[in-house]
Request: fold
Amino acid sequence: MRGAAGLAAGAVATRLPAAGLATAAGKTAVRPVRGGKFLQGVASGQPSHRAITLWSKLSDVEQAGGVVLEVAKDSGFDRVVERRTVRTQRRSDHSIKTRIHGLDPHERYFYRFEAHGKSSEVGEFKTLPPPGSKAPIKIGVYSCQDYVAGFYTGNAGLLAEDDLDLVVCLGDYIYERQFYEPQREDKTGKNGDGEVQTLPEYRDKYALYHSDPNLTELRRRFPFNAIWDDHEVEDNYADEEPGEATIDPRVPFLERRRNGYRAYFEHMPFYPAGGREKKKNRFRIYRSVKLGHTAELLLLDQRQYRDDQPCGDTIPPTPPCTDAERNNPERTYLGDEQKAWLKRRLRSSKATWKLVGNQAMIMAFDVPATQPINVDQWDGYGADRAEIMATIAKNEIENVSFLTGDIHTFFAGQVSETGRQTVAGTPESLATEFVAGSMTSLGVPETINATTGVPLPPAVQAMVADEVFLKANNPHYAYSNTERRGYGVIKATGEKLEVKFRSPMTTKQPESTVDTIQAFEVQAGTPEVELV
Ligand SMILES: [Fe+2]
Reply:
């Protein structure tokens, strides 16, 4: 094993031969933690072909101290390859996180934490294939798991996939307040109404979400990655501008945002990206995950650096936002640094598939034609969209596919420079997009009603629910389904991208069967979505 000095804050690498867990903490002279229970499970994340970040969290700690981590090649822990002590800290609420280096590529490992003689669950992960590997890659993608909106029958469906290289949450991992008719109780927050604003309140929210066995099992079984969208802080915020949905604002917005960001990293099995930039950008989440030669996943942040939504973030029936307002080149979605990074990665990636982990839809969502219904997505930031798509066109970058969350709806289709095609095939398709539904959060009409308090007019609701109408007004769509919840399973090979939209029959019951509602293929070299 190579040591991990300097990379894993709080971790003390020990190089002991396999022996009793209890001895390890003593030999590193770190006082063992006093008290503490592993109530939120374990997780692995930020995988590479050689490294992984391992996570857990202790509740009810009496005094901070060392927790022992073991990593082994077998579930019985006979072949231990790493044992180290990780210090918990009060300031991070005894979140346990450490990065392990020097692992073998594409190999399965098992890990567990131990505190005062009690072990956590045993987690498992497989490292990613090495650079140059043409091994197929399989990724589960999902978003929008509002705890009160339903049961995690979709998360359970993902668990039935036995060979995922990675699970990616594309945003709305938590919801900062209650938006929908509750199917389950959430009494977090000062007023016990589920609205969280302070750091301890956000921590309580994650603890609630991590009381769900389908979610914790997903994190235990597969390497987990995530990007945040708005609800990890507050509905529809934009950089330093708050959204408007808060019922009882008690904390200045920037403080609230910092609370949300801190709690996020305390509960996720990965560190902020950016390395040397860390001081400048303490909460950077945009980053790249290299999956052998087959794919590179580019994860974005469309909240932290964006300008405010145009036209007051209005929705129909208010007068439509003009093209000039939506496409104003003075307004940015990604911010200059992230946009330059994305263009650089797209141009220089050697991977066959450039998969973009994207919070909000890049294809236009026009209801009716030429009138975007949602200016919170790329439609409200047309200049940045045109710039990214022009980079793809000018450099003839092949096999770009956007994997998207946010809109609580399944879509698949073609991405042109303007995000829309006026007739099928025009302007030409440059990339594909798969919008993978939502785990529990309800569809567009219910969400607009819940977040704005203004119901979508019945005529517009009917248009949103009508797949024939949507396709006629958005010829860039190959598929839409606004009724079902669920997630996507993406398999990438050198020849093609295979995508399945999977959907539970219900999220209103704790258990459900899960079906493939539509399968797709994208042939390498052809930015067109084929229905299978
Ligand atoms: Fe959402």
